[in-house]
Amino acid sequence: MTTLTTRIAFGALAGVWATGALTSTPAQAQWKPTRPVEFIIPAGTGGGADQMARTIQGIVSKHKLMNTPLVVINKAGGAGGEGFLDVKNSRNNPHKIIITLSNLFTTPLATGIPFNWKDLTPVAMLALDEFVLWVNAETPYKSVKDYIDAVKKVPPGQFKMGGTGSRQEDQIITVAIEKSAKVKFTYIPFRGGGEVAVQLVGNHVNSTVNNPIEGVAQWRGNKVRPLCVFDGKTLSYKETIVDKMSWSSIPTCMSQGLDMEYLMLRGIFMPPGAKPDQVNFYVELFKKVRETPEWKKFMTDGAFNQTFMSGAEYAKWVAKEEQRHRELMTEAGFLAKK
Amino acid sequence: MEEVANLMHGFATVLEPFNIGVMIVGILLGVIIGVLPGLGGANGVAILLPLTFSMSPTSAIIMLSCIYWGALFGGAITSVLFNIPGEPWSVATTFDGHPMAQNGRAGEALTAAFTSSFVGALFAVIVITLVAPLVARFALQFGAAEKFGVYFLAFCSFVGLSKEPPAKTVVSMMIGFALAAVGLDHMTGQLRLTFGFTELLAGFDFLIAVIGLFGIGEILLTMEEGLQFRGKRATINPRVVFQTWLELPRYWATSIRSCIIGCWMGITPAGATPASFMSYGIAKRMSPRGKNFGKGEIEGVVAPETAAHAAGTSALLPMLSLGVPGSPTAAVLLGGLLIWGLQPGPLLFVEQKEFVWGLIASMYLGNIVGLILVLTCVPLLAAMLRIPFPVIAPIILVLCAIGAYTVHNNPLDVVMIMVFGVLGYVLKKCDYPLAPLVLALVLGDKAEEAFRQALLGSQGSLAVFWSNGLVGSIMLLGLIALFWPIIQNSVARLRPRPAV
User: CB burial class (10 A; 0-12, 13-18, 19+) of residue B403?
Assistant: First the structure.
């Protein structure tokens, strides 16, 4: 019943979302946290998930959206496996939530740790993170075609693609580019998007597939150039970034002949065994978070795709995405050896 | 001269009464965070970050950066008094700081540590003020090969300096490398050396190892030696600060060298930990009192502390100008900048002048305020050693356990510090040096990553480490440092001949 209510509520929400005129929230939340809530980040400090979680923490405490504190804890070990296992082992603890990125799927597939997203209770999708193909602004490549032609001219592996982590989203996208354009990169994994961006500015790698928020500072400084965005449609943010270019003027990779669409989940899960009214409390909480000006600014800065989902719709989306990652990673040979 | 005008404007911002209040609160919180093992500067800043969201960005960054300075100061306190490094970069401070405390010279050691920290930080701030844009460009030259060169140099300048046989140093270092390798291999995304235990996913945290090896190990040793701190003789002398100050200018060469090492390591960004180790190693080589290092030589406190603070301070520069944090704490500050709506990167210095220069001005003032605050506490802190061992040992044990737990909120870590404590005790009894183990554990996986990234880029050719002037000279320096004892010996053998 709660799921149904949530879905109806979501439908109503989605309708008024664009106008930002939402004022009332359904009075469903009977359960309330009675002690501090742990907010687990399965990634290191300073990364995309960390920034989002800390922004949420700041919003919750500034607007007093909860009567107990929200405490952010990084559990980055084992490509996030440490955090996922911690939440999995906290059955029936409603005072713990976790923010996820694509390592929700990639880490268990690549390492074989005993974890699957079904071990957790899905709460809500907060947003989807975009991926952009970047090159150094000093290079002559103005389009995907210029760049791919240059890669084809030299022996395979001569061009270096920098990315975050190994057998994770950045490398999955790289493999898809290689397949689609029939080229070969040398993929070099680094610890975080910030480091990757600087390697590109310093000309130590030839291209990256950083998230907008990881690349925007260097773009504004005219140090890097975006070639295409791995989304089905162009981005909606029209504010000028540099030289009359905005996020919305970056073409999609599909339109440039690279057959790859990829968006990364920024969503919330709870430990197994959570009751519907507990889940509902957090769904309502995040709806309130999304209404604040701070959140809207954060979304604009990072050019996020602002899709929001909860309940069965969210679970279905996650299941589909897991299947897709399994296929992509099987093709790329990234699965853990049994 | 535009910089000077900007800086003066920055001072005006920082000297508002509210900002000065924020500064003092920040330093005090930072010292407490630095003293508690495990609750490092990065955690402290992360926990307190939400507090600052209601402030203006300038006040907020002043508070957070002051917590950072405070933590840098605080880390030295437990290292000297109890042989427990509160922060990774204070490990090298224990080598001479703790023996000094045992010889009843805790006050001197603390004064030297605090003053050197101040000197290092001041030097780094001046560098930031004068050459910020230039330095940022230098940092961009550092790819994987150059980074590996820096780590290589850190290892090399440390090997062979110990009095222990080189074989024991190497064994100890290899244990460190092995421990560093446990967990996820970041280059392939595969788990290794976990033997199917999911508890080992995250590998061995450096802080857990250090709390155990040094803190618990030290307590075990003291118990064996008759349940008392040798530092019991420590007298409370309020003039100790001034007496030590009179002595410090003698070590100007070490100070300047450590400042330069620190700034270089902070900017590249390799961080404060390799800076402190490298500086200690080189000071030991170059100092005429080098053979007394490890027995309580004040210069052995000056070198690592100066370098650690110079590095910790200059680490903020790549964060502001490039968006790459030079240290974990800088990474959290970076997150803070984004939340306040400031975009770190090449344009920050142009678009957010007030903020950047306010921050730089707060670095000057924050360090002065911090130095005064911690120096007034020196006699008090030194007096802690007069507390009888049976009283203080359980307190230290409890603090170690709490510290270990706060690193990852993992109860298993509390057990791990005991295991590392026993390991530390056994290694010490067998005269294996602990420092190489710690160095390898801290830098092992980073060095390995840089090495493999460089080789991936060069398609397996080792020539990449001599592919340009920069990396070539770093590697050459490393090799010279590694074979220095041999070089020194042959030079010494050659020298008398012309005289004959």
Answer: buried
